[in-house]
Specification:
The complex is a heterotrimer of chains A (312), B (360) and C (144).
Chain A: H1 2-12, H2 17-38, H3 48-58, H4 69-88, H5 103-124, H6 128-159, H7 164-173, H8 177-180, H9 182-196, H10 207-210, H11 220-245, H12 257-278, H13 284-311
Helix pairs in contact in A: 2-11, 2-12, 3-11, 4-5, 4-11, 5-6, 6-9, 6-13, 7-11, 9-11, 11-12
Chain B: E1 3-8, E2 20-26, E3 29-36, H1 44-49, H2 53-61, H3 68-83, H4 89-117, H5 121-142, E4 151-152, E5 155-156, H6 162-188, H7 190-196, H8 204-209, H9 214-218, H10 226-229, H11 250-273, E6 291-299, E7 302-310, E8 316-322, H12 324-329, H13 332-336, H14 344-350, H15 355-359
Helix pairs in contact in B: 2-3, 3-4, 4-5, 4-11, 4-14, 5-6, 6-11, 11-14
Chain C: H1 3-13, E1 21-23, E2 28-32, H2 38-49, E3 54-61, E4 65-73, E5 77-85, E6 90-92, H3 102-112, E7 115-117
Parallel strand pairs in C: 2-5, 6-7
Antiparallel strand pairs in C: 1-2, 3-4, 4-5
The chains are: A mainly alpha (312), B alpha+beta (360), C alpha/beta (144).
Chain lengths: 312, 360, 144
């Protein structure tokens, strides 16, 4: 019975849905606030992300004639489920729900499901903007995913383990891997921006070009779920980077682990916000160029160097 | 790859005013485009025929929601020529001052729109924030942020005392610092250049073929500016440079417009410091003697031309308005051919469309 | 721009016509020409004087006839004036010489019902697609 309760607690409260939802709303608010301050604006009050979510959930849910209704309803749920599942394997403040050797690979796999669902959503919702946005999102996926994966494999190779918790724990004894592999950390950040489709890589949903990309025809609950997926994905992505590159929660230090972990996560969030305020949106062909001509070779060089050093 | 047709407009997030494009697209490449305007055609030319000359000042002010003052300037200048009125110099200076403030406001607004189109919201916010300085000045002068109702036939209805002039001069310095910041950013920021360089290219030959005017022409190396070529209002007393560039792409148009903004600031300073004393209006009769006049000015977007014919009554027999946007709209077909769909908003922004102007 | 030379060239081109330059109020010169001479005159302006900036075409219904005014600009204004009959007015298009004239001709054509011979795509520019009233800038028939 207690076994069941602890599973339910992990799924629904911590580090499951409840905690992630709270983090997603908080991160979204901080992100909007920081970007607003950088742009000379005030930004929204703290409850705005929650209000947006509730408002969207209450709105009428319409799909155009000819759209695949089952798929359009299933896709946001599948992606939300994938992101939530991924969160179970990521330690937060030294506490993790599930862990095994190789969970990093599972998490990376789970985190790429929303990207594919996003593409399918565009393809199946019969609007030209959605179709263009969908094909862009797929192209973008191929551009950032390879350097992102190679960058994330760096810490794993150095630590000799494919378990996120173990990689994080090893760094608390030694030095943060972001200091050992600054290039890898940077590539992972760029990859994360691409994965989250945040400015300057918000190409698939470029408002002034293709309205809202694949989500143009979504509304009401489905759109709310999509937004929630994106925001939770941001939380999970940031937590992942904190564990892999910034030493997780530094077990053994006197300050509570959760606090340290939170500060590190906020640092990465800040970098994302600043990046989105500082650059213009790129074109998809420019991103593909950067992805394959700059990011991928750099990531490959980094990985080979890591194997050379780590293996030798 | 299959060809698909993407509609841009009449309603679209990238369009602030209604116009419609049907883009034929293969992959992300545009093969053809079909343009349709007229969604905000209000028949203003016909309305002008049914109002008297004084009422028409306010009608033509509604042609454009950005450059309203230049329309009344052009109209009043035409009617004043028909009446043979000599407008007092102080009125001409104040008129020109508002023209130049309006140019700054229009160019900054445009810079913000361009930045938003390329997803650079920070510049968008900054440009529109700094544009408020100009809007405040215009509001203090005339009572209106956009529609100023500052021109009357025979002069202006606004005035500025010395304390006000000094306060405006102070704020223009603040504005100049901000605009220099934009200039620096445009010259150096690489993601901005990646989106604007080489996009929407027009050669000088194309400019001449399509009779394009204004900053779009000047950015392609066609050196035309009616403020210098046919000085009206107070321009004959001012020192200024006409800004040109050679590249002919959206980046060059950005440079031309931002540099023009700085040049306009200098002009505003000259106008304010040399503001002559004297009356603000001369009395204008209600009835206008028969005749016809072609009145041209340099609006923020280029040559604006009014043709006014009088039949001796208190109403014009014909008012023809040609706004500069109409000349640039026709080039869009050439500019869009072969570009990436992502560049469509950039191309549209690059020519600085004012659809309400074009439709009248 | 050599305005006298332009006038001279036009006089040579149309020996049968009496061509008079009429000074406008603001830096503008008006020259009246017969309708079938406009195309040739514009050709002369472009080829001999490189005067190819057509600012716009003004059209107006003066009651007796349809008047077209071609406003050119080359450092000073030059307006070519011509008159067409009210019944089935038509004139040669200028778009083959000046592609930029396309929008102006479309507007004239919808607003006053003038046909431009040889114009490639004579769709309405500003009026709705289903407009079926009379050309809106014509004076009402009852006024005649």
């Amino acid at each position: 019975m207690t076994e069941w309760l602890s599973v339910l607690f992990a799924l629904l409260v911590f580090p499951g849905f409840g905690f992630l939802l709270a983090c997603a709303l908080a991160f979204q608010w901080i992100d909007r606030r920081v970007e607003a301050r950088l742009q000379g604006r005030v930004g929204p009050p703290w409850f705005q992300p929650l209000a947006d979510l509730i408002k969207l959930l209450a709105k009428e849910d319409v799909l155009p004639v000819g759209a695949n209704e089952i798929a359009c309803a299933a896709l946001p749920m599948v992606s939300l489920a994938a992101v939530l599942t991924a969160a179970l394997y990521i330690p937060v403040g030294g506490w993790v729900a599930r862990t095994f050797e190789g969970d990093l690979i599972v998490v990376l796999f789970l985190l790429s499901i929303p990207a594919l669902a996003y593409f399918l959503a565009g393809w199946l919702s019969v609007s030209v903007y959605s179709v263009v946005g969908g094909s862009r999102s797929l192209l973008q996926f191929f551009s950032y995913e390879v350097p992102f994966l190679m960058a994330l494999s760096g810490p794993a190779i150095l630590s000799g383990s494919w378990s996120i918790s173990r990689i994080a724990a090893q760094q608390s004894q030694a030095v943060w891997l972001a200091l050992v592999q600054p290039l890898g950390f940077l590539l992972a950040l760029v990859g994360l921006i691409g994965k989250l489709k945040r400015s300057p890589f918000d190409i698939p949903k470029a408002k002034s070009e293709i309205v809202a990309g694949p989500l143009t025809e979504f509304s009401g609950r489905k759109l709310a779920l999509w937004h929630l997926t994106m925001h939770i994905q941001m939380v999970v992505g940031i937590f992942l980077l904190v564990n892999l590159f910034l030493g997780g929660s530094d077990v053994g230090v006197t300050i509570p682990g959760v606090l340290i972990f939170g500060i590190k996560a906020l640092f990465i969030l800040l970098m994302l916000s600043v990046a989105s305020a500082l650059y213009a949106r790129l074109r998809i062909d420019q991103l593909a160029n950067i992805g394959w001509r700059v990011l991928a070779p750099l990531a490959l060089a980094q990985m080979l160097a890591t194997i050379w050093i780590g293996g030798g | 790859m299959t060809k698909i047709t993407i509609p841009i407009g009449p309603q679209h997030p990238a369009l602030k005013e209604p116009l419609s494009f049907l883009l034929t697209v293969e992959g992300e490449q545009i093969l053809d485009s079909a343009l349709r305007i007229g969604y905000v055609h209000r028949g203003l030319e016909r309305i002008c025929q049914n109002r008297n000359y004084v009422q028409n000042v306010h009608v033509v002010e509604r042609v454009c929601g950005i450059c309203s003052h230049i329309h009344t300037t052009t109209y009043c200048q035409g009617v004043e020529a028909l009446l043979g009125l000599q407008v007092p110099p102080r009125a001409l200076y104040l008129r020109t001052l508002l023209c130049e403030l309006e140019r700054i406001h229009s160019h900054l607004l445009w810079l913000g729109v361009l930045a938003e189109y390329i997803g650079f919201t920070t510049i968008f916010m900054y440009a529109w924030r700094d544009r408020e300085i100009v809007l405040d000045i215009m509001e203090e002068l005339s009572g209106g942020r956009v529609a100023h109702a500052a021109n009357v036939i025979g002069g202006v209805s606004i005035d500025a005392d010395e304390a006000h002039v000094a306060s405006i001069l102070d704020r223009l310095d603040v504005l100049e610092r901000q605009i220099k910041l934009f200039l620096d950013l445009i010259r150096r920021e690489r993601s901005f250049q990646a989106r604007t360089r080489g996009v929407g290219h027009l050669s000088a030959e194309q400019i001449r073929r399509y009779c394009v005017v204004g900053p779009a022409a000047r950015a392609s190396g066609v050196d035309v500016d009616l403020r210098r070529d046919a000085p009206y209002a107070a321009y004959k007393w001012l020192n200024f440079q006409v800004i040109t560039a050679e590249e002919g792409d959206v980046w060059a148009r950005t440079m031309v417009r931002v540099l023009e903004t700085i040049e306009s600031l200098h002009m505003c300073r000259q106008l304010l410091t040399e503001l002559p004393a004297g009356p603000l209006t001369v009395r204008a009769p209600r009835r206008v003697p028969p005749g016809e006049v072609v009145s041209r000015t340099e609006a923020p977007r280029g040559e604006l031309i009014y043709y006014i014919r009088s039949d001796g009554s208190d109403r014009p027999a014909r008012v023809k308005i040609r706004t500069p946007t109409l000349t640039t709209l026709i080039t869009l077909h050439d500019q869009l051919a072969g570009v990436h769909t992502a560049d469509v908003p950039v191309v549209l922004a690059g020519v600085d469309l004012c659809i309400a102007c074009a439709d009248r | 721009m050599h305005w006298e030379a332009i006038l001279q060239a036009l006089r040579e081109t149309f020996p049968a016509e009496t061509i008079e330059a009429q000074a406008g109020l603001i830096d503008e010169t008006f020259i009246a020409l017969p309708p079938d001479g406009i195309h040739l005159a514009v050709q002369v302006l472009i080829e001999r004087f490189d005067l190819r900036h057509l600012s716009t075409i003004t059209s107006q219904d003066t009651g007796g006839e349809i008047e077209l005014l071609y406003h050119f600009w080359g450092g000073r204004g030059l307006t070519l004036r011509t008159s067409l009959p009210r019944e089935k007015p038509h004139i040669a298009t200028l778009t083959d010489l000046i592609p930029g004239a396309a929008f102006y001709e479309r507007e004239v054509s919808e607003m006053l019902g003038v046909t431009f011979d040889g114009f490639p795509d004579p769709y309405p520019l500003l009026l709705p697609d289903d407009w079926d009233g009379q050309p809106p800038l014509r004076q009402e028939e009852s006024n005649d």
